[in-house]
Design goal:
The complex is a heterodimer of chains A (239) and B (312).
Chain A (H helix, E strand, L loop, with lengths): L2 H12 L2 H23 L6 H36 L2 H5 L5 H32 L5 H28 L3 H19 L8 H9 L13 H25 L4
Helix pairs in contact in A: 1-5, 2-3, 2-5, 3-5, 3-6, 3-7, 3-8, 5-6, 5-9, 6-7, 6-8, 6-9, 8-9
Chain B lengths: L5 E10 L2 E11 L2 E7 L5 H8 L7 E6 L14 E4 L11 H11 L5 H11 L15 H13 L5 E5 L7 H16 L3 E6 L2 H5 L4 E6 L2 E7 H9 L3 E8 L2 H10 L3 E7 L2 E6 L2 H14 L3 E8 L3 H14 L3
Parallel strand pairs in B: 3-7, 3-8, 5-6, 6-7
Antiparallel strand pairs in B: 1-2, 1-4, 8-9, 10-12, 10-13, 11-12
Helix pairs in contact in B: 2-3, 2-4, 3-4
Classes of the chains: A mainly alpha (239), B alpha/beta (312).
Chain lengths: 239, 312
């Protein structure tokens, strides 16, 4: 019975002004790529530009922040106004509630980031766009945002400041520490997301792991976070 | 023998240094039961523990024999009206109640939702978003989502708040009927006369302690028999009147405060009968007679003190 909960949560997530703000953030890479396409100097390496914008802006910042906000809001908004009681006071298995919420947050995230990635690729690569150059980054974004959404949902049930903690993780840990400390990248969701990009685009740095291992790690993050969130619903204090 | 609908065994709940419930034990099964207490007495905490939204710090809570937090299947038998705002204000009431029916696995959820909305008189406005409802309508929408799956146990946190007198009577009538059908309904309130209209049994909480548990009539008698303080203002003769009153059996103690008589009586009716003749004999002209501390807080304080005296 997760369908009605997914639809309900999607309506709640996408009807707010916050969704418009996130849509604008999602469009930032596409706008950047569009400006680049218009002002591109002759002989510029479009693959390097596209690789840079995907690996340094799209995956680690734009997609991560949007997934964080939707992932936190899926449970967090209802926890804040007490509505969560109406879901918890039902015979639905707790893990199903969590799966429905994470799925809704993930779909909402993809609604914003997938069109933006397609536009970014189209503007940046123009005639050099191939299925692989779009598909691998897309796979990385899809799996990384799922992991971010699950982790954010777990955070929203475990702490009172999930957004702040999430932003510190994304900007400080992933965006700074993990860029110069190789071992720290092993605890970075975006590093595993970027590992997919290496299959189709030039790399500035060695990826943290191969695509298959990255997929396994990200799925494991989703499973652990979902289990933790379900456990928090059973054991935690609700409003 | 089936498990009781609700069973509290030595339940305490504290938040940091604040004790919200202290060693509360009771068992209820069938009928409408009032949960009475002042604000902060522990009513909502009790209902939250029943609803599985919180865990006891000590003791055990069982709903139909199980811990609802670990056995969510028991929610098929529970309907809850929390104190919080109604769910999903952007949804129409019909959508809210249908969703509740589906999540409680009601087969014909559309028909069940319409029945529940008709029960609370919201069928005509079922397509309006709950966020546009008045407070009273929201309360009834909350009640409809709690009734839609025909639960055996209803947990209602102040369900009459915000309702006009006609709506109150209607909701009380619904709850009384459901109770008479054998369901268990635990309804919290801080207004005794509201609870009296529907509950056969009352649990009284004061400062997190269960200070009285009994029939509604018994609790009413207990409250009416408590010692009362009365202040009497006279135009002269206060001391003489105080002496005369103290000599009679109706008055337990007397004092003069700011020129007025303050006395304590266990039998206010006898005092009312004796006072005019005593005033005449003392040559005191009665200016004002008024009870002191007759508000509900004082009643709770009395019940609390009485329970402590009994070693609770």
């Amino acid at each position: 019975m997760i369908g009605p909960i997914i639809r309900l949560t999607l309506r709640a997530l996408l009807r707010q002004k916050r969704a418009i703000m996130l849509a604008l953030i999602a469009l930032a890479p596409a706008v950047t790529a569009g400006v680049y396409a218009l002002a591109r100097p002759a002989g510029a390496n479009v693959l390097d530009f596209y690789s840079g914008i995907v690996q340094q802006l799209f995956v680690p910042t734009v997609a991560a922040l949007i997934a964080l906000v939707f992932g936190v809001s899926a449970f967090g908004d209802e926890r804040e106004d007490g509505t969560i009681l109406y879901l918890v006071a039902t015979p639905q298995p707790r893990i199903e509630l969590v799966i429905a919420k994470v799925a809704a947050a993930w779909v909402a995230t993809l609604v914003l980031v997938v069109p933006s990635l397609v536009l970014t690729a189209a503007f940046a690569l123009e005639g050099r766009l191939t299925v692989a150059r779009l598909g691998w980054p897309l796979l990385g974004v899809v799996l990384a945002t799922l992991a971010y959404c699950a982790a954010a949902s777990w955070l929203s049930l475990r702490t009172r400041r999930p957004i702040i903690i999430g932003i510190i993780y994304i900007l400080l840990w992933e965006g700074s520490i993990a860029t110069f400390a190789a071992s720290a990248a092993k605890l970075s969701i975006s590093a595993y997301g970027r590992a997919f990009v290496a299959h189709a685009l030039p790399q500035a740095a060695r990826p943290v792991t191969g695509a298959l291992t990255a997929a396994v790690v990200l799925v494991a993050v989703v499973a652990i976070a979902a289990w933790g969130a379900a456990r928090a619903l059973v054991r935690g204090e609700l409003p | 023998m089936s498990d009781p609908a609700i069973e509290f065994s030595g339940v305490s709940r504290w938040y940091g240094d604040t004790v919200s419930l202290a060693e509360v034990s009771f068992s209820i099964d069938g009928g409408v039961i009032g949960l009475l207490g002042h604000n902060g007495a522990g009513k909502s905490t009790t209902l939250r523990l029943c609803g599985g939204f919180s865990s006891p710090s000590a003791g055990r809570v069982r709903i139909f024999g199980v811990d609802p937090r670990r056995h969510p299947d028991v929610y098929r038998r529970i309907g809850i009206v929390p104190d919080q705002s109604p769910p999903w204000p952007f949804l129409a009431a019909r959508e809210v109640v249908e969703l509740s029916a589906r999540l409680h696995r009601v087969a014909d959820y559309r028909a069940a939702a319409m029945r529940a909305l008709e029960t609370v008189d919201l069928a005509d406005v079922a397509e309006r978003p709950v966020g546009e409802y008045s407070h009273g309508m929201r309360q009834r929408a909350k009640l409809a989502q709690a009734l839609v799956h025909d639960p055996d146990l209803l947990l209602l946190d102040e369900p009459l708040n915000g309702l006009d007198p006609a709506q109150r009577s209607h909701v009380i009538e619904i709850l009384s009927r459901l109770g008479a059908e054998g369901r268990t309904i635990l309804v919290s309130s801080h207004v005794l006369h509201e609870v009296e209209r529907m509950a056969q049994r009352v649990l009284v909480l004061v400062n997190g302690r269960l200070v009285a548990d009994g029939s509604t009539a018994g609790i009413r008698r207990l409250i009416s028999e408590r010692p009362r303080r009365v202040r009497i203002a006279t135009d002269g003769g206060a001391r003489a009147l105080a002496r005369r009153l103290l000599a009679g059996p109706e008055v337990d103690s007397v004092g003069i405060v700011d020129g007025q008589i303050e006395l304590e009586t266990s039998d206010p009716s006898a005092l009312a009968r004796a006072l005019p003749s005593a005033a005449r004999e003392a040559d005191a002209l009665l200016a004002e007679v008024q009870p002191v501390g007759d508000d509900l807080e004082s009643v709770y304080a009395y019940l609390h003190a009485r329970a402590r005296g009994q070693g609770r």
